[in-house]
Amino acid sequence: MRHFRRTGRTAALRAGALAVGALAAVVGLSSCAGVLSAIEDRLPPPHEVKDGMLFSYYSPSARQVTLAGNFNNWGGTQGGGRYDPSIDPMSDPDGDGVWTIAVPLPPGRYQYKFVIDGGVRWEQDPNNPDKATEGGFENSLIVVSPGVRYAAEVVTGTGVTREATRVVEQPADAAAVPVTFELAAPDAREVSVAGTFNAWDPLANPLAKGEGGVFRATLDIRPGSHEYKFVVDGTWVEDPANPETVPDPYGGKNSVLTVK
Q: Which domain holds residue 244?
């Protein structure tokens, strides 16, 4: 009988030890999850660094993450194009699951998402509360102020190009000609025109909204061939009334204006 009680007590002690071990394991896993959550929670929203606006995304299980937005033709997909994983790839050199990229965006409003593993998932930025909608989809929003100190790259059409901008040189003494740009966009808040004639600056030449939701602006343009796009609430679009186009660097098109 005494031997039976000792055996029962030993079994109880062993069961208790297993329970404590299991609890410790759960606590350990919870602690790890808490640490991972803390890493994700403390990532900052996009902010200015030396080389541009720094985007960060936490995804330890991802094999590849890219940045897509209306500044790079949504990774090549805008206008029916195909997703291109070589556009704005993010990096995780130390393998801690934090993917980053610095993009020298010019001043303006931009929508974006993170694209995981070749387009398996398109995710908003969990660390950025600012949102906007484009094409019926809610996206994360970043506003780049005119006071950024990095050297912004020239915007051509729908994206920040890493290639030389096509600019047609004009004679220095060529007389400028008034040209009126028009776009019917009754639901838009802001429309501007950007092209080779204003260094693709989306803030340089806003259009005024008139009757019927038609935006207009008259600019003095020197004779020659010029590429341009309208910027509608931060989204770059070609001129629907102009059939003359050339390809842009991201699978879309720039409208072409010939001034004589």
A: 165-259
